[in-house]
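step 4 of 6: structure.
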Amino acid sequence: MRQRSLIAITAALAAGALTLTACGSRSGDKGSSGSSGGTTVTIGVDAPLTGDLSAIGLGIKNSVDLAVNTANKQNYVKGVTFKIEALDDQAQPSSGQQNASKLVADNSVLGAVGPLNSSVAQSMQKVFDDAKLVEVSPANTNPALTQGTNWQKTKARPYKSYFRTATTDAIQGPFAAQYVYNTAKKKKVFVIDDKKTYGAGLAATFTEEFKKLGGQIVGTEHINPDTKDFSAVATEVKNSGAEAVYYGGEYPQSGPLSKQIKATGAKIPVVGGDGMYDPTYIKLAGSDSTGDLATSVGAPVDTLDSAKQFVANYKSAGYKEAYAAYGGYSYDSAWAIIEAVKKVVEDNGGKLPSDARAKVTAAVQNVSFDGVTGKVSFDEFGDATNKQLTVYAVQNGAWKPVQSGTYTG
Amino acid sequence: MSGVGPVEPGEGTRPKDAPDREAPPLLVRPRGRLAGRYDRHRRAVLTAAAAAVLLAGGGYLYATRPQMPPPPAPPYPAQVVDMIYLNSGAAPESTPTRAFTFAVALRVQSGPPVTVTRITQPYAGLSVSSAPRPPFRTNAGSTRTIAITMHVTECGKVPEGAGLPFLDVTLRNTRAIQMQSFILGSRYAHDLSEALQAACSNRFR
């Protein structure tokens, strides 16, 4: 009896093992054939990953990484695996240009996200455009990049391959001027900039609108962004009788500048643009920065449900650095490229065509999707159609939204 | 077949045949106070225990019942409302001399209805009224044309050439109340500037 049972169990186990072996061999064949047809598409990232502006640059890089990982996890483009190639431009135009050349030379790169600085973008645009490689900046705000240097009179798009998800200083500067003049009731302003493409351009658009409203510019100065001693300018501001300072530039300079202006006894707000909207500014400017103002692109994160999902995913991904001012815009920039790749692959029978770069550039022009920052699409200049702005004020050691606007012109 | 039936049980092997033996006395422990109480209230205790088990089971089933995920919160009103400048129009006859009217279109893209509770503008020397008068409600997918009338209260304070003027609109839906500035673009800026210059020309100063 016992022997009979043993024989039966042994026979059953043997049959089971044979069945499992057979299943295993079939599944292995299928997997190998499937993986051989996959394509890897690289999305380049250019941003300042080291130096004073790395707090923002690393947020850009991580957010693109999150978009790529999300697309891969969802198998969003069948047969395509995305990866990123992140390069450090140190906020220097020459480094940006070298990075652009490097990305162009890599055939797997079908799009790039970046840069942060408008001056860096100027040096990269032509390199990308010559290679028909699409570039989507999450942060450049200088109007000339999309509308040409003569944008105030005649808009003309210089490069078909350049897009941006952030709105421009053509709106940001005037929006700040309106807030300072009408809401904050400051009629005399001292304007300072860092002479760079972004800072000087933003200061100019602010100044023009502020004067039109009836405001008075009581002084102007340019600072050298390589120094941190602004005591001479600070004294000049105090002696000018200004009721506010408008600064065109970024937080590594505006933080110390604000501190040094307050130290002269001039307890007046320093106002800036999106380049100032970072927690690091408050650390650098110190406790006297309460009441300082900055405009930034987009609606406040807590009023965007899509942004909340992004914030939660970013947190759970475990990135060391904050997503910072342009995280959502960077994610959307990367996703615009991913959507374009998807369209090109689907239109070509599931494979990338030989002229994939040109086709992806053309497809980005027509993308339309609900992104982190709202509806994402581009107008005929490559500018974002979603043009929202928010004024933030330093309150209790943090930036708090005080007014939001939507451009619908 | 052997024809041999089962063996009959022998005498004394059936239980009823067994002689009555004196059963050994059961070992009865002295019953405690609780056991005594239990004996007295056994029915009540059992009923209470059954009720407790039923209650716990019901509670567990209720707590672990399959639940529908909560519906997503409606969007913030400022995220679903567009306001577009249409044109400058002829002012109604009742409009005071130093006033002018223009039309904007307000569209609610999605979500619950949005109520406009207030329309203001930020410039000194001007006040604003609208038709329809706030509050008024617009459903998702609908577009409403609003006639905005600007009244010049003090020509010396109005901005004659603002590049990006805007209207401040307070919006309310079931999610939130928000004040949003709608920057209506260069055509609105141009028309507003012309209207202000006309309203404040020397004739009326």
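step 5 of 6: annotate
 - The first strand of chain A starts at residue 39 and ends at 47.
 - The two ends of chain A are 92 Å apart (CA to CA).
step 6 of 6: archive
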